Structure formats: C-alpha cells, structure tokens
Records
---
Amino acid sequence: MGIDVAGRGIAITATGLTKVYRNGPVEVHALRGVDFTALRGEFVVVLGPSGSGKSTFLNILGGIDSASAGSVLFNGQDITRLDETGLTRYRRDHVGFVFQFYNLVPSLTALENVALVTEISANPMRPDEALDLVGLTARRDHFPAQLSGGEQQRVAIARAIAKRPELLFCDEPTGALDSATGIMVLEALTEANRATGATTLVITHNAAIREIADRTLRFADGRIVEDTANPCRKRADQVSW
C-alpha cells in the first residue's frame, strides 16, 4: 500500500478501468481507461452529466459491476479478478452503499433495519451508535413509513456505516430530497466520514456539493476530465444550493 506525502495511506486504486456494454452489434463505452486513486478517509464528490460513467465507475469500485478491462486494487488485491464469492465477501466486509432510494425494509424499525447489517459484519458498531451518528436516536423505533425522506436516507447511511466499512459509496444520496433535507443528509455523510474514517465517494448532479469535499472528480464521456483538490472545505450548512 502506498503512502501520500501527508502520511495518509492509499485506500483504493483504479488503473485503465474500462467498461463496454454490448447491445447486439452496438458497443457502448461507459468507461474509457479511467485511472483513479483515493486516500484513506478522503471525501470525494463525483460530478458529471447522465451517461458520463459516474455510476458505472462507482459500481465497479464497489464490486457490484464488472470491468471489461483494467484493475481495481484494494488492500493489495485486484477485486476485478475475484469470483462471485470473493466479491460478496468484499462488499460485506469492506464496502458501505447509499443509493438515491433508501431500500429500507418496511416492516422493520429504523434500529432493526440497521441491525440487519450488523448481524453479518465482522466488527460492527452497535445499531443505536450508528443511528446516533446520523442524529436519529429519537427515531430508532419508528418504521420507514413514519419517517420523512431525509430521515429514511439517514437510516440508510447508518445502515451503511454500521459495519465500519473502509469504503463508503453514495450514488445521488440527495437526489430525491429538497435542499433543506439534503443538507441534513450531507451533514450525516460528513459526520460519518469523520467518525469512521471511511473513504467516501458521493455522486451528485449538484455541483455546489463539491464545496464539502476534499476533492472533486468530473466525468464526461466515460473519462475523468477534471480532478480538483478543494483547499477549504465548507460545512454542509454553508453550501448554497
């Protein structure tokens, strides 16, 4: 594992990452030789128009899609070479996911939704500890239907971080929310990143969110066309939507 000049280790590295989808005789190039390195604990915002390759990139890093070519190194192992059993173990032990839609189990309380993950994790935090991190201690016994959209998304974040993942991947986590609720979700994500040290990648269409990141990637036509460090991170409640 490499070390950056500030002494922070490298969390994950992609080299020559390529994805080609075939639809009959037509080839769609979703990723075109992407190179990328994230440091441990880094908070990265990923921007770009629909179809630019953002979600494909995140899904391959997270082990829920396969690459056509290239490599993804995590803890010295190329996850693109893992079989399904290996990928399942990688996702279970090392990766937390947050999506635009919350995917909570309707018949379980907030606490029980988080506990689902902790029961299969090697070194989980307590479910109530994860809910406290996202500010939902008082809502722990509520069912999803009794929670607002922002509260449901924060339960989803608590569920993702409760297994103490090294990697936290979020695909449009505020996409279905209004600005005030979205800010609360971003506050939960930045607190989760700070408290757990998970390397965090957040896909968004909202360019203003880049202000809370350590670094911003911009995708276009299957490539990273901009990789910009942010010298002065703002708090989520300082972002102008």
Note: The radius of gyration is 17 Å.
---
Amino acid sequence: MNKLYAVGLGPGGEEFFTGQARAAIEKSDIVCGYTVYVDLVKEVYPDKEYFTTSMRQEIDRCRKALELAESGKTVAMVCSGDSGVYGMAGLLIQLKDEYKDVDIEVICGVTAALSGSAVLGAPLGHDFCTISLSDLLTPWEVIEKRLECAGEADFLIALYNPRSHKRVEHLNKACDILMKYKSPDTVCGHVKNIGREGQEKHIVLLKDLANEPIDMFTTVFIGNKETKIYGDDIVTPRGYEKKEL
C-alpha cells in the first residue's frame, strides 16, 4: 500500500518536531505543503524533494500529494501545528476515496493553543476551546455564535487567525461579544511567532486586547473568571488549592 503521512510540525523550529514527525519525514521521498511550512523542513532536510503551493490552493495541494503517493512515492504532507487542527489531514481523508491505493497516516503535532499557552505559563489550565476568526471557510455568523456560547459558558479561549490585513475588525468584534459575558478586566495574553525568531509574548486585559499589535502569526488567549497573573506568567487554576488535604 502506498503511503502518505499528514504531519504536524508544531509551531516552528526543529526542536518542536515530534519523534513521529521526524520518522515520517525521513521515510518520505517527497515533502508537500504550503511554502512557509515547507521552508521549515528544508532547513532540516535539504536533500528531500519538495512540492509547494501558495495559500488557498489546499485542494490542489492535497490532490497532488495523493497523486504522488499513488504513483509509488512515499509522501509527507506537512502542516504547521497539528495536521488535524485547522490542517490538511481532514481534507486528505475526504479525498481518499479517489485514491484507493493510498494509505494515509495522521501524525499529530503541537498545536498553537498548547505551544503558545506554554510561553504564557498555564492559561489553559481548565476547560478551553479554540475558535478561528477567519471567515474564509466559515460564515462570520457561525463564528459569532461560537463566541457567544464560549463567552456565556466562561470557557478559556484560544483564538486562531485573529487578524489579517483584510480582516482588521474581526478581533475587535470578538472582544465586544466576549465582554457581554466576561469582565473587561479578564486576564488575556497573546504570543507572536511561537517557537520562531522574533517570538513575543504580551499579557493584557480583555478591555485592551483589541488595541494590541496582533496579526495572523499571533495566537490569542482569553482567560476565565479565575485566570490570574503570577509574575510574568498567566495561570488559570484547576482548583487543587481548594481541596481539603
């Protein structure tokens, strides 16, 4: 059976590649992916063969990877973070029926909610959800509803794709929605370029979050009513300190 790996690379540098991810790439003849993510692999495996596409060519990219695998090549489709979290693993599996001689194996990676949380301390110490603010594939009305529900339930929230050149106001709108349910003084944080050159972390309050210099390379963390600042870190207590010993 021909092999195609959907590989999560983690947030950035080689140190975030899991053992499984390394093994899959080393076994592969060709590495496919979005140009930015493939460049991360080229630094570590310069002698591999590569196939890249630009953003918004996801279907073409996945079909090409499947075609290469069907031709007998072992292929790694690489994704930033985890390949199954806003990644290509799902699309590859959806297309698989057209390429019945290809076996797809999903290789997990460290998604930005986890790697960014570690930079900030432990903001995701209790129940949390991830919400992407990109409305390229999801209607904004659906995103708004998810923000409403997460805010009402006081979930900890990791926001992906918080702001771009074309979607300047989405983060502002998200903050307005969440402040209907959460205090304006809710502790928040954001991390830019997680695990890469130029990594930055910032701790702010929800009322100030929309005015922060946040872009598509930033992951945003919004606390719950228990989230607090401890020195240079954010922690959301699980509640151990309330237990009777």
Note: Residues 58-70 form the longest helix (13 residues).
